[in-house]
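Board notes, transcribed. Complex of a protein with pyridoxal-5'-phosphate.
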Amino acid sequence: MKFATKAIHAGQEADPTTGAVMTPIYQTSTYQQASPGEHKGYEYSRGTNPTRKALEDCLAALENGRFGLAFASGMAATDTVLRLLSPGDEVITGDDLYGGSYRIFTKVYAQYGIKFVFVNTSDPKEVEKAVTKQTKLIWVETPTNPTLKLADISAIGNIAKAHAILYVVDNTFASPYLQNPLDLGADIVMHSATKYLNGHSDVVMGALVLNDESLYKKLWFYYNAVGGTPGPQDAFLALRGLKTLHVRMKAHCENARLIAAFLKDHPKVETIYWPGFSDHPGHELAKKQMRDFGGMISIVLKDADLQETFRIASRFKVFTLAESLGGVESLINHPASMTHGSIPKETREKVGVVDNLLRLSVGIEDVEDLIDDLKAALA
Ligand SMILES: *Cc1c(COP(=O)(O)O)cnc(C)c1O
């Protein structure tokens, strides 16, 4: 099946008892057993729930994977992967990460004796150089947040394979509509389903998709043992969101293309990050491993200090100043004080997260209204 058909149908069948076309919200914690241990595959909803199962199967189909796992947040999904590690293990990851990933690495798992090595993942040689006998995991985000650097998923996959290292790609910014890391050599795809997958800014959720059955069983063990799993209402909403993923992504990409063109030569814009420009360092790679350039754009404002940046960020009428991304509505975010506030100033400035950087999550409103809003706020 093709992507759009999978987005609407995968994992879902009419309800066998009533014929309900939409997967019901199975609002139940437990399931009747005919005799002890004799049940229909569902025992207790921390581990298994039919609404969540439909969502997981749909997610797996969209990422061309065999197994999907849904979590109560993207961070819960990340946490479950990190539980595969033991003290003394090393992780190679990007120097330009989502702030919450940086925080769980350095503030939660580092204290258990796991070492995190941060490198520029846009250069696979840097990843290779950082490999030691203790390296057990490579964790890559592409495009990165917020400066939209690209990492070559298959080149890093070859390094991971050569050294038998587990390889995870955080595919939140691209969504499976734009890129499928499992096809390019990743072992696990991680998502903050809060963003494009759900797409309506009304659910916090995470996901993992993978192909290897024994790895799936290990992850399922932590998923159930630790219990960061989502309830059926949220699973239902995310499943509904997925049905329009392809339509939304197309519109996000189209609006972003027009907005990027508007901002490129704007006198108030010093630098613009969007992989669709031929002078973006990841442009050729984006053309190779992504189907389009996505709905995220970051800009550095010309001659703006923190105060002026705050003033501009607060002036929007259609864009909403808020954390998060990937919803149908346009959002504007000041990474240095909002999403990346947990990263020390020197660390974030090294990778371009400066005080006068703003990140746009371009929504699917009428693009003329969005451009008018930008014009007015930047005037
Ligand atoms: C939001 C986000 C996360 C964390 O997901 P939550 O659903 O907020 O827990 C991880 N990675 C990226 C790239 C994100 O944007």
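The mean pLDDT is 97. The radius of gyration is 21 Å.
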